[in-house]
Amino acid sequence: LSCIEKVKQGNTPLGLKLLESAIGYPNHPKAKAWYGYCIAREKEEYSNGIALCKEALNVNPRDADIYLALGRIFLLLNRRGTAIATLEQGAKMEHNQDIEQLLATLGVRNLPVFPFLKRGNPMNVTAGRLFSKIGLR
Length: 137
Fold this sequence. Notes:
69% of the residues lie in helices and 0% in strands. It is an all-alpha fold. Helix 4 runs antiparallel to helix 5. It is elongated. The mean pLDDT is 90.
């Protein structure tokens, strides 16, 4: 599915045309998910795009690429937390370099050292810096 690669590289108008003209795309979960991303980005049909991704996940729940498409839709909607959670779930399913790169770009933060304290608490800040300096984070 080279049209999916075009979409991943950012050419969603071409990807949308190719996926719409592809015979049998609705039966292929990955193509359905990326078509959902294309219509979300190009036509601003976000709920329809999310629904297509979720349908694809129902068919193939272990495909990290589908989580990537869904996570990107959440980013279009400025739902960063939901996007990160979705991408992390996809990363658990299988190794996916695109997910890892996107998570690195988003700058996912580590959990606080002491989760029962607020992130900005001086103990968490100091312990986080110390752990980072000695290589434990």
